[in-house]
Amino acid sequence: MLRVFEPYDAVVTPSGSCAAMVQHYETVFGTAHSLAAQARALAAKTHEFSAFIVNQLGVTKMPGRFPQRVTWHAACHGTRLAQVRNEPLQLLSSIEGLELVPLPRVEDCCGFGGAFCVKFPEISSAMGAEKCAHVHSTRATVLAGNDAGCLLHLQGLLARAGPAPRVLHLAELLDEAATGRPTC
Amino acid sequence: MLSPQGHFAERAKEAVADAHLRAAVRRTVDRLRDLRRTTEANDSAMPLRREKARLVREHSVAALPHLLEQFTQACRRNGTVVHRAADAAEACGIALSLLRTHAARRVVKSKSMVTEEIGLNEALERDGIEVTETDLGEWIIQLAGERPSHIILPAIHKTRHDVQRLFERESGTTLSPDTARLCAHARIRLREKFLQADAGISGANFAVASTGSIALFTNEGNGRLVTTLPRVHIAFMGMERVVADLDALASMAEVLPRSATGQKLTSYCTVITGPRGPGELDGPEHLHVIIVDNGRSAVWRDPEFRDVLRCIRCAACLNVCPVYAQVGGHSYGGTYPGPIGAVLTPLLRPEQRSATELAEASTLCAACTEACPVGIPLHDMLVRLRRREQALHPHRVQRLMLRVAMRFARSAKAGALPALLRAASHGGTAIVLRKLVPALDHWQRTRALPPAPAQTFRALWPQLAQEAMNEH
Amino acid sequence: MSTNASARAASTLAANSFREALLAVGGEVHLVHTAAEAQACLQAVLEEAHVRELVHHAAETLAPLQLSALAQQLQLTGPHGIGPQAHREHCARAGAGLTGAIAGIAATGTLVLAAAATTPRSTSLLPPLHVALLHSARIVPDIAAALLLFPAQALPSQIINITGPSRTGDIEHDLTTGVHGPARLVVILLHPESEHHP
Ligand code: SF4
User: Are B409 and B458 in contact (CB under 8 A)?
Assistant: First the structure.
């Protein structure tokens, strides 16, 4: 990773979880490790997708239209570890026609948790089911998020349970708004 | 300490299937965390209080040996007898011999986690001593012959009808399932026990080194009765409970109730310094404090985990833990459930292999760390525990799978992933694949597999990069 | 403003804050301005609760209440000239316990008591009703300040901080008062009018 990304000025990741992990590399290696300096450099230039747009590019107004009810899944690692909280909401609410509805108990983990979701499938699914119930309660037509893992898990759960809102990554949603072409 | 039977995963599976338990736990944690949040949101000084509490506990833990020595000396001056117990057996043994010396056969107890940790009730009962838990929730649990499911509210999984039946069985009378009536019944029944008791046993939320005091926070008042009526009072404390002085104690009083139940202060906060004084009409004639180590020294010597000794048992981490909300306290198997239990139990009981599994039972969502008023990095500690477990007992299959996955990801064939996904979601290959890869099976039982993309990002990248270059 | 007036303003603020905090946790507060009002208030509270026996802390800790004035209607038991056993029996039987608070805590609505020969613990604990007298001048801002009132090298055997009635939520979160300690806590808050009223 350190080698691959060396030549670039910025690294953008679609998941807050990945951003947090990269920002964490130094502690994983230990500060005395020979790669620590490189790890620090990579951490400094790695950004979660929405944080990159808002904080690095300084852009807060998104183009296009998205006339739908959207609710936001605030992924744990993105918010608590990578400290990306407001940026995606800022982008979403700037889109014309988009109605952003708050998700009840938004701070609760969805139950994905990496290997957790297959090591403890019952607990993971029970957590996910609660999250899905909250999503349904918003009557949103789209559930958006910025963590691929959570979205994969929630999409899987929602799809199994019958008619459900579409699950979109923030990037997909922005693309759809700008181009008018549905992603999926 | 009762050792957990079987594995967390099995107990958790049962708990998840128990709709009544889950609803009760969910109701409790939501209520407690909402109470805490409301209090914190209306209190602009809360960040400061937390910061001060963190510093106080950091200092207390750093200076632990010194503070314990200071505490012991101050106790000597005020007439409190201090005992040190290396482990559970020794702690129970000291209590037993004290009770024998004072010819005490009937004991009333106020809520104490550390006595549960050392299995005190069982030890006393084996010796024919009558032990009555007097915290209402604890009494209910004792009558049911169960273990607490939450640190603060131990009987949340019992309905008022369960309680009615338990009380009727204990008293041989007929009762109504009305909460107020049930509480009134408990007041009368337990008041008799208080008045008859020879000895009172309590925990200690905190000990104050400079004055040789112990502090108890309760809402029901049973903590006061236990330390007022019987002629002997024995207080148990984990060795990390000590803080330097009254100012440090005040700082604890500012955060413990707020973090636990959102109260600014519990109904009763008693600071006990020595036995009944000259001329006093009530209070114990003898006061003993038993300081319990039971694995704590080893944790203290471990720089990776020492900070966990800051814990003030407020249960804020339980109340925000999404896993705890699903599985409840019993699944954790030890005395301490939730995130603090997942960290503490394997550290206190390293010989108990099944406890190490608790560290796996987390999504590392870090809600616990965010809630903890004394700044314990709980989710980081879970990662450290996993790492340690891997180093001690490498999981071969897992490693092999990781290596295969790495190869796969690195190889040019990564484009095979969509093909694999497609195969896994349709037809006969799907069944074969799922059997071969249990994880896939666990995934798809409740979740649909994602639709396979036509092309991977990796395959698209050269073209995307080119387009971006051209635009510039 | 004179020093007197500003001291009074401060103590009015403290009294209000104490009162609000205690009301919020289910305690009862009666604000009175004179000894006579305090006396009448006590009488009314005891009558209304049909108290026939009152256990109380030593009279010197309860000034300016005149306990002797109550003696016609009630059985009164104080800590003087009584043994531990009799004291316990009286407290277990009494309809109310009367104490004089050493201090109050403005931020939390807390009463601060301390165990001593003249102020036993059971008085505020065993009866179902606890009535306490608190002087507004004795209200301190927070618990740190309250603990500072005691000499650290000679603390009383118990400092008892009481914030509202005894309560539990152990059965189905149904908040119930009086499970072990008093179900009612009534504070008579004496806030004297200043001599030079502004
Ligand atoms: S770890 Fe922190 S949040 Fe959890 S019980 Fe201990 S002090 Fe409270």
Answer: no
